Amino acid sequence: MNERHAGRVAFLGLGNMGARMARRLVDAGHDVTGFDPVPSARQALVEAGGGAAATAVEAVTGAAVVILMLP
Fold it and tell me: Coil, strand, or helix at residue 58?
């Protein structure tokens, strides 16, 4: 099966729901950059194979898709 991905995905909010959703996107082969104000949440995404941004603006700059998982 040939999959096409739209480009980089920015994921803002890496809490209980966001972290799992972002990780599933990474596992599916998407290029995901996440942001969360909690450094350990960003680090967990990096350890799962994603990227982390220091700010929300940095995360969304150049992204093809932006997903918000905010309270």
Answer: helix
Number of compact structural domains in the chain:
1
CA angle 44, 48, 50 (to 5 degrees): 90
Residue 53: per-residue pLDDT:
98
**Tokens 């972290």 sit at which residue?**
19
Residues 45, 66: Cα–Cα separation, whole Å: 16
- Report how far residue 33's alpha carbon sits from residue 41's, in angstroms, rounded to the nearest whole number: 12
Which residue range is the domain that position 23 belongs to?
11-54
Full-model pTM: 0.89
Query: Angle, to 10 degrees, between the axis of helix 16-27 and the axis of helix 39-47?
Result: 20
Angle at 63 between CA 28 and CA 44, to 5 degrees: 55
